[in-house]
Amino acid sequence: MIKSSVQLKCAEERLGSVRQLISEYNEKYSGIELELYSAPLIVEERQLLAEIVEYKKLKELPFVGAINYLHYQSLLIDNIGELLSKLRIAAKLSQSEMAQKLGWEQSNLSRFESENYNSQTINKIVEYASALGIWLHIFPSLSEDLEIRAEKRHDIEIKNVRSFDTVSTSLTTSSDITTSDVPIQKYVVSSAKQHILASDIEKQDLAST
């Protein structure tokens, strides 16, 4: 995911390069050969587009609107660092500013948000979210894939995002959690999950920026 303006610039440059390659392949190849060369690039294009659109929405929406946008998405708690990064971006804070707010070293915060770090503890997650005035809820599921849930709420999500809906969010954490400071196990958290396929509305939003 994109976590900074520097990464946004890199992603936009890569998106331009990918689209150029796709255009060149369309002129050079056809049929199965075109599909073979273009398919990986098309997947990458969609992923880059989704990440760029999401980052810009989180940066541009008012804080409440950004939290409502995240509320209608989901990810596994294994990926809690990704959610925390998005909450920070929604609050319009850099990693340096968030580290200062928490009294942490920036390097520790960067590791805490990393997709490759899975040793966050409940106490630390609560501390992070509470600093932003956010509450987090978890819920159990018999399936790892929550894409259906996200798709069912897609229309509501887009409506809320575009109207900057200010209904109170249930993306929350409890400051009175008494769980001991141990690594969390595998649950599902009401949070954010990347849309692999960007909608036409999202593409229009990107084109207008």
Feature tags:
single chain; 209 residues; mainly alpha; 434 Repressor (Amino-terminal Domain); three-stranded antiparallel sheet; 3 strands; elongated
Q: Could you outline the blueprint of secondary structure elements for this entry?
A:
Blueprint: H1 5-28, H2 31-60, H3 63-71, E1 73-76, H4 80-90, H5 95-102, H6 106-113, H7 122-131, E2 138-139, H8 147-152, H9 154-163, E3 188-191, H10 200-207
Antiparallel strand pairs: 1-3, 2-3
Helix pairs in contact: 1-2, 2-3, 2-4, 2-10, 3-9, 5-6
Structural summary, described in words:
- This protein has 209 residues and is mainly alpha-helical.
- It folds into 2 domains: 1-60; 63-193, 434 Repressor (Amino-terminal Domain) (Orthogonal Bundle), CATH 1.10.260.
- 59% of the residues lie in helices and 5% in strands.
- It contains 10 helices and 3 strands, in the order H-H-H-E-H-H-H-H-E-H-H-E-H.
- It has helices at residues 5-28, 31-60, 63-71, 80-90, 95-102, 106-113, 122-131, 147-152, 154-163, 200-207, and strands at 73-76, 138-139, 188-191.
- The chain has a 3-stranded antiparallel sheet with strand order 1-3-2.
- Helix 2 crosses helix 3, helix 2 crosses helix 4 and helix 5 (95-102) packs across helix 6.
- The two termini are 19 Å apart.
- Residues 150-206 have low confidence and may be disordered.
